[in-house]
Amino acid sequence: MARFESRVLTTELELEALAPEWERLRRELAEPWIEQHPAWLAAEGRASAGLMVVVLREGGQVRAIAPFLLRRWNWPCRIGYTTVAAFPMLVARLAGDALLGSCDPAVQEALLDAVATAPIPYHTLHFEGLALASPLRKLVDTSPLLQRGYWFYSPTEPSKRWRTRIPASFAAYEASLGKKRRYQFRTAGRKLDEAVGEPVLIERVTKPAEMGAFLKSVERISALSWQGRRLGQVLEVESTGARKLKELAERGWFRGYLLRAEGEAIAFVIGFQSDKRYVYEKIGYDPAWGEHSPGNVLLYRLIEDLCSFEPPEWLDFGFGESQYKRVFGNDWYEEQNVYLIRRSLYTGMARATQRVFRATSDEARRVLDRLGLRERVRRILRGAPEEPTTKRDPV
Fold first, then answer.
1. CATH code at 5-160+335-381
2. Which pTM does this prediction carry?
């Protein structure tokens, strides 16, 4: 008789029925967070291609859960910034940074086996921002089952995930920055005030009734930003993504910010707070004010607000390194974006093609680095104006 039984859940009703046992396992994690909550997963599932939640039971009791979000993705084969070819994929992204449940190797291996044999036609598993020192990373690196059934792929080298431990007061945070950095941030704020002609104001948004006006500002600013103009990344008021944000506000998880100049928003932050963690999710600013670093001004005042109003323990800047994260952060750990590609003829062809183009792109990047032109070319392709390298902004 088999020791374990597994089941794959794909509907919100199934998630609701499992909620009490799910929350019990989530609370056993060292650092539970919002993405591992079933209600969050359900909201994200409606905004993506669906859910794949693998549940492992032993003797009728839930022992472990692996929650994945499904999304459509075109695996790009690029030379520089130009996509030459793309392979359509169905990606199963792990919600959060850990599997829920027992750390017993037998339980973990049985859960991975259930994931590998799930009747969902996904092409790859995605672990975003997987900590190098985490038990899950060790499992990914050493599991014979995963090594037999998947190819390991990471588009980037390991990097630092920056975060800020929120102190008891903003004065304590400022003291940790040092005199020079404090002066720079205060000066940036004063210069922006002078450019506007009056003090700019920060506005916190948490209530469902505030979301309509907030999303209108975000739509306008995101359309003006380089991400909107070049990449089409505009958050429209009536979009699925906007409806998801409204739902999260109704659950008390949303915490966004606007920076206003003369009554009009010039920068925004979309973030979420749960389980003592504030996640700094998405940012944008009106490029007309770019020379005055509105993103940095907003982030500095956001941290001041986090210190005084319902303070979390951590401000999490999310995956990927940036100059502003190193400046504002005071803690970090190493992480990596990891894909496990399910072995098949189709994924093997995609993988081989991608590797050829990546090698070509890496060589072009090395040439630009030798010539000292890489940053300049990057800015031209983004459509961004030339600016001194000392001016850095979160966007």
1. 3.40.630.30
2. 0.84
